[in-house]
Amino acid sequence: DAENLKVTKYFDDREIPNVTDANAWAALSTPGYCWYDNDSSTYSETYGALYNWYTVATDSLCPAGWHVSTDDEWITLVDYLGGLTDAGGLLKETDTTHWASPNTGATNETGFTALPSGNRSINGKYDNINDYGYWWGFPEYSSSSAWYRRLNYDHSNIYRHYNHKNNGFSVRCLRD
Asked: Of 29, 47, 58, 127, which is most buried by a Cβ count within 10 Å?
């Protein structure tokens, strides 16, 4: 089954810093990850880790033979699924076990099983668990921001945006 990444080490066995302090997170310009609310026992298995973009940019996050999904790959996927309006629903886990109600349009026809893992904002605050799922894309948008995708509990759309690299978002790896 498809799932969000939850590694704490790069594929070459180097540790990724687990940054729990909000001020330290906000000041990062280097790789870091966290668990939602700094609570690995509650959130790690289901939702995976939240990584800042500096971790994504190392090109060592996914296992050998895999890579972080690119902005172009996201665009191709959305086009294949019929466009921005319905693609989100085709990617989301069905029902409201994890997603807030009404989980609009959720069919998971793709097997992607997108979950609303929330995010960690640039000020270190955790937010949006059960409401939104965010996934980094590659490459960066600018020196301070990078592409990501967002799915909402109350829409079947998928949203393409860019945001500050210090945000903590989920990651999906694709086979090379």
From this structure: 47
- 164, burial (CB in 10 Å: exposed 0-12, middle 13-18, buried 19+): middle
pLDDT exceeding 90 applies to what percent of the chain?
97
Residue 155 is part of which domain span? 22-175
Token pair 């978002």 is found at 169
pLDDT at 9 over 90: yes
* 170 is a domain residue: yes
Task: Give the pLDDT confidence of 96-129 residue by residue, as tens digits.
Answer: 999 999 999 999 999 999 999 999 999 999 999 9
For the chain, how many helices (H) and strands (E)? 5, 9
Q: Is 0.90 surpassed by the pTM of this model?
A: yes
CA distance 145 to 44: 26
The closest of 59, 48, 46 to 97, measured between CA atoms, is: 46
Cα-Cα end-to-end distance for the chain? 18
Name the residue type at position 4. Answer: N
Radius of gyration for the chain, computed over Cα atoms and rounded to the nearest angstrom: 15
